[in-house]
Amino acid sequence: MMARDLVAGIDSSTQSCTVVLRQVSDGAVIATARAPHPPTTPPKSEQCPDAWWSALQSALADVSEFIPRIAALSVGSQGHGLVMLDEEGQPLCKAKLWNDTESGREARELLEKLSAEVWSARTGSVPAPAMTVSKIAWMQRHRPELMARIRHIMLPANFLSYRLTGKSFTERGLATGTGYFNPFEDKWEPELADLAAPGLDWEVILPEIVASDAVGGVVSNCSAIPDLEGCLVAAGSGDNMTAALGMGVQNGDLVISLGTSGTLYAVTSEGVKDPLGTINGYADATGAFMPMITTLNSAKVADAFRRVLRCSHAEFDELALSAEAGANGVTLVPYLDGERTPNLPGATGQLVGLRSDVQPGQIARAVVEGVLCGLLEGERHMSQHGVDTTGGRLIVTGGASQSRAFRQVLADLTGRPIWATVSPDAASAGAAVQAMAALVGKPCEEVAQLWQPEITIVAEPDARSVSRAAEIRERYRNHADSVAAEFLNL
User: Fold this and answer.
1) Do the Cβ atoms of 70 and 6 come closer than 8 Å?
2) Which sequence positions are flagged as catalytic?
3) How do residues 159-188 score in pLDDT, each as one tens digit?
4) Of 1, 101, 135, 476, which has the fewest beta carbons less than 10 angstroms from its beta carbon?
5) Any idea which fold 6-240 has?
6) How far apart are CA 1 and CA 4, in angstroms?
7) C-alpha to C-alpha distance for 158 and 135, rounded to whole angstroms
């Protein structure tokens, strides 16, 4: 029998499924595979859970020669997505994803039933279209015929683990994005879920909560991937939580993830409760907390303007870096698909400050500055809640973190050096950390430190550009406030 000397980390994101295989002996990455998910765009953003399962099978098929050597695996995923299964374990409908904004009305109604102060005190977050609880309320209103048939409600990573093991389980880092999990006491709050869909048997429907470093189940009777039979399946977590493990994030560090969404987060020993709902006071996958700001519009904003400017990734970077800081007054408020922070699901993007001498480079620079200024507003809010990240590293991750323009402009806007890991697959690498922790019975943070990747400075602030940062951020803030006033009640 072949030795089981590998662990697998799986990241089931909005765009794709990524599998990273690491050696048990030293954490070295020996193989990576990726398969796409169906494209989706807000306001109605849905995917069939079976498409995630197919993508996982496809990615594993690309590394099939290694599968018999996998001793343990862990599945991380996009957060918040609502997966509803029937008695046979089959999806009742497509999953509404984190960036589906159709449940804005339901989120407001949940806040009428219970104050924002109570929601944040019990869950660390306030109902918004992104949260699972709002999506359940939307289903109760728009698909009532499905509600009596629900046997399981779970999140994307839980669904893949369920397909592998036949067991419904989750852990604090992923569960904390539902709006009915208490990260301060690590327990479900079924009465909050009942506000969204009264009368369901929540004690049966919700997954079992297991420790983040625990074994959740074992691959069994999985005819689709028979060589995985007997493999341990760890608890799994949210993609930002596994990415933090993959990068070895420490207290005091500030992380900005530039993927489909934009996130800004830190790791803290105390949880954050923000009744304004700007900060989500999430749990992490180590027993600590992960206060986070999330925006709907990040790397895809640059993708959209690359199409408009008809340029490649490299050409876009060159254009953005060719323009002076501030883009000669051109400012983008990048709410192309509505926005989550601030909570403006009906908003659209606005490009202002255009003159007849506008240049492509100024537009490219405004795109990068707009995306980053929106995220950096979150740092101000976090500091007001006692989260101090001034003494740690400013780390970038996600697809757009490979962009020279995003790295340099971030350094210029903050006046800080920018750090990044050599490997771009932090979320799947961190899921492998979690698998290893479950395999050997050690805390996730201990394995994360042992397997900490090389992390280096990739951009230094330019003094001349830094001198204009306050002006640029203030101008962005003023335009963003104007957009908020226009779209506040949509």
Assistant:
1) yes
2) 239
3) 999 999 999 999 999 999 999 999 999 999
4) 1
5) Nucleotidyltransferase; domain 5 (3.30.420)
6) 9
7) 17
